[in-house]
Amino acid sequence: MLIRVALHCRYPRKTWIKTSMTTRRRFLNSMVSLPAMLALQDAIGYSSAWARSITHSGSTLDKHTIDRTLHSLAPGAVRPEGWLGLYLNKQASQLSVHLSEVSWPFTGAYWAGEENAESWWPWEQRGYWIDGALRCALVTGDRELLRIAQAPVDYTLSHAFPDGYLGPALIKNGKEDDPRVDNFRWPNTVFFRALAAKGEAFNDPSIAAAIQKHFLSDHAPYGGPSRDVTNIEGMLWSYERTGNERLLAMAEKAWGDFLVSAEPGDFESGDLHPTRVFANTPINAHGVTHIEKAKLPAILFLHTGNLKYLRFALAAQQRVFDHHMLIDGIPSTTEDYRGVTSLDSHETCCISDHTWTWGYLLMATGDGIWGDRIERACFNAAFGAIKKDWKAHQYFSCPNQVLVTQTSNHTVLQHGNGWMSYRPNGGHGVACCGGNVHRMFPNYAIRMWMSDPLGGLVATLYGPSHVKATIGAGKQPISIHQETNYPFEEDIHFVFQSEGSASFPWSFRIPGWCSAPRFFLNEKPLPLPAIQNGFARLNRRFDPGDRITLVLPMKTTLSHWPDNGVGIEHGPLVYSLPLKEEWTPIVQPKWSTSDFPDWNATAVGPWNYGLSVNEDTIRNQVKVQRKRMTEDPWIDPPINVVVPMRKINGWELATSQRDPNQKFTPPLPDLAAGSVATDTESVALVPYGATHLRLTVFPQIT
Fold this sequence. Notes:
Strand content: 15-25%
Distance between the termini: 58 Å
Shape: globular
């Protein structure tokens, strides 16, 4: 039996704020059945040997861990500026506001009317978009997008069933053995995030009350192996605000029942049996299924203080980083977790979902490494998966993609289809990424600042923005502007504004890649406060106009990958060979329009380069070039890295065995004698996120 520790100082209760239809799981995945290894002796209180499993978070898990927990601010407290504001406003004015006019199922009335469907898919997919679009509207202040995104939220709240259930009849009345509605409570998890965003932003306690009534009247088996268990997130969001202990008990029971139902290596449960988690095995699971479930014990820890939950959450994440992480900060997930070769790719859903999960790990541990990981994923993988006019995105994206067309998907799943092309709805009929892509950047902005148990503020993620919050027991209003061109430059300026002086603890993240940070107050150098768990804390009185400058010097480093692969990194950014594109628009009725078409993009010019550098020569052979900050740094980067490269003769596009006209991005070549050109060229690499076509993992020429 779990011993609960009340954490009122951490999360105070607030008064505000059979059918022919193939299931998505069967359609997308080839399930690998593994025999049961061990019976689960104690589903919740697993052995101390498991609990001592090594994690690499850098945190010491003890009774003081609860003192490091953080709390995200309400959507709208942080307003993006500079390049971050530019791209969130692009998102708001382009695909987010127009998607409901462009592509099914977003053109439907799911969550805004009782529509019929063959499965839960449309409610999940449109729910992703509603949540992302609403959050985008809240952080940008875009009124038209707010009107559109808020409408289905208001409809659902005003059309609750008599027992309080929120959602469509198909999902309410579904059964787990019905293939139309497997994971039949999962869409509620997705949509309830939008309810939560509105409840927090508008200080509306009625939303937490409505979610409370929904769960307490629902008799669905939330503890089975399906994604239904993810509703723990919504249960605990409502518990935090209502204080109803039945919700906490419901959430803990669901997690315990889930662990009992999970079997070692079981694909459906997300491969989260404790014997697998604490053995640090590669993951045999769908990426979204695993990561949405793996975050749950971190959230449970935030509301109970039980370290067993946090140990489980950290061990689950360590598997991701040890076995599946790609150079751009997101693991290979197409759609299942896979390897780390130059052709391994990831689903765009996994960018949104992994960074969302890591935000909870950041809150639960107070460890800056999770901020590092969120930044790396957003600055590289996220920007690399969208068209820079914010009118299209990829379903699958890859560090190495030298062409993206309707037939160029080089992954093993749906090989040869169009899932790597840029589209307003990347997967067409499988539209999850078409909705989920809208969550990436709003959630980054929302989680840039957090509060701590001491009543202070914490700068967790960096980028141009300003935050309005209250500090201390007296709830004194304060505004802090984060003036910076980071990650393109190294300086971050924090300008403090308040009515009168304000004394409070202010913490800021020191990225793990930075070995020599510098610190200035009103242009005078100061000793950097002690760094603990990736954060430095300054306790002082701040006067209006105080200006603190944090300088994070960036170094150029190499990372190594299978098949003699090598990559270039500089600070939080990964660097790629940019390929000039030839774009061809394609309109496919139901999925795209002339204003928001699908695209074929092929490379114009050579791309067959190897990198002629190693750790011994990188300092002398690699040069970082900077220019003044540009209007749009993701189109015209103000920084590049010049490296020595040599062409590799015979390294060409791969060709389909069935159709000689069908081409794919090739794997890294075998550098046979005579295949490497003798001439060395100086070639400029640009930030990964500034590319559409690219080469990022290069053959290393020694």
